[in-house]
Specification:
Elements: H1 2-17, E1 19-35, E2 40-51, E3 56-69, E4 74-85, E5 92-107, E6 110-128, E7 134-159, E8 162-177, E9 184-199, E10 202-214, E11 221-235
Length: 236
């Protein structure tokens, strides 16, 4: 445990100084939740991600989940994620199961959230065939831990019951292989944007997302993906 933690912190400077490629993308999301009772609700997310802004597909992702809201502070969830990933070699699918805990609190006008998620990932394995083509052969199993810190607050009123708000978050993704001890940084996301209530049960958010991730399994070459992120949320 101690050795893994030391290696993780020693890897951070190398991660920040690595050779980086730039990419520009446009991502759109639809998030819907449905209240079952005071403590239980369902949520589903659909993400449509294109790179080179709108010219090429990067990923399509669906993420249903079941939530237990213990109180105003603590929220537990279990979920499933399907993602279709588009690559130059061959497109492939990934199926994940995950467990999550979220802690929420407020201070004056500011709201804070801490989200902890552990993912069990089943990723189709791409192999190079003898004839020079790429094919799918078997499944790779990996685990990943994610922590997201989110801050939000209202900025100013547009009407008596509608306000523009600001949201920012940073999320670190850590590969844990088949255990729970962090082995290496998988990704880091930073987001800042504005949100606006369309009507009573729906809102839209638009902002900038910077996604920093390795190229393949490399520890030295990374992609910095600058993303225009648009999200619509709807409460049933």
């Amino acid at each position: 445990m101690k050795k893994g933690i030391i290696c993780f912190f020693l890897s951070v400077p190398l991660f920040m100084m690595a050779q980086t490629q730039e990419k520009y993308s446009s991502w759109s999301s639809l998030i819907i939740d449905y209240k079952l009772s005071d403590n239980f609700y369902l949520k589903n997310e659909a993400h449509f991600r294109r790179t080179k802004f709108l010219s090429d597909w990067q990923q399509i992702l669906l993420r249903p989940s079941f939530h237990y809201k213990y109180n105003e502070t603590v929220d537990f969830a279990i979920g499933y994620t399907y993602s279709r990933n588009y690559r130059n070699t061959r497109n492939f699918n990934e199926n994940d199961a995950w467990e999550q805990m979220q802690l929420s609190h407020k201070s004056n006008k500011s709201s804070f959230k801490h989200r902890f998620r552990l993912e069990q990932r089943f990723i189709e394995k791409i192999v190079l065939t003898p004839n020079g083509n790429y094919d799918i052969e078997g499944i790779n199993f990996k685990m990943r831990f994610r922590y997201r810190f989110t801050w939000s607050m209202p900025l100013f009123k547009i009407t008596e019951d509608k306000s523009i708000g600001i949201t920012a978050f940073d999320e670190i993704w850590l590969n844990t292989d088949k255990g729970i001890v962090p082995k290496q940084i998988n990704q880091n996301w930073f987001y800042a944007g504005l949100s606006y209530p369309l009507f009573k049960k729906a809102s839209i958010g638009i902002g900038f997302l910077d996604a920093f991730a390795p190229v393949g399994n490399s520890n030295h070459n990374f992609i910095n993906n600058s993303i225009l992120q648009t999200t619509i949320k709807y409460h049933l």
